[in-house]
Amino acid sequence: MNTVHEFEIGPTTRMECKVCWYVYDPVAGDEEWQVPPGVPFHELPEHWTCPLCGASKDQFLIIQE
Ligand SMILES: [Zn+2]
Questions:
Q1: What is the sign of the dihedral through the CA atoms of 18, 19, 22 and 26?
Q2: 54: CA distance to ligand 1 center in Å?
Q3: What pLDDT, in 10s, does the model give residues 9-64?
Q4: CA distances from 59 to 25, 50 (A)
Q5: What pTM was computed for the model?
Q6: 39 C-alpha to ligand 1 centroid (Å)
Q7: CA of 57 to the centre of ligand 1 (A)
Q8: How many Å apart are CA 27 and CA 11, to the nearest integer?
Q9: Where would a tag sit more exposed on the chain, N or C end, judged by fewer CB atoms within 10 A?
């Protein structure tokens, strides 16, 4: 079980959608939602959803480096 806690999510932590495997990379930001590069996952707006499948933020898993 891979529970996401905000304190585990660092400024460069990449997050993967468990529905469609889209990866949010803070270094790149998200063009779909006009999120500029450098925004950590936990600072994305509450209404942010996966740009590919529309899954909510709690559907994302931490990618362990
Ligand atoms: Zn997705």
A1: negative
A2: 6
A3: 889 999 999 999 999 999 999 999 999 999 999 999 999 999 999 999 999 999 98
A4: 15, 9
A5: 0.85
A6: 18
A7: 9
A8: 9
A9: N
Question: What distance in Å separates the CA atoms of residue 59 and residue 37, rounded to the nearest whole number?
Answer: 21
Residue 29 tokens, joined: 């930001």
In order of 5, 26, 44, the CA distances from 36 in angstroms are 23, 9, 10
Q: Report the distance separating Cα 52 and Cα 65, nearest Å.
A: 23
Could you give the CA distance from residue 48 to residue 59 in angstroms, rounded to a whole number? 12
Domains within the chain, CATH numbers bracketed: 11-65 (2.20.28.10)
Q: What is the pLDDT of residue 7?
A: 64
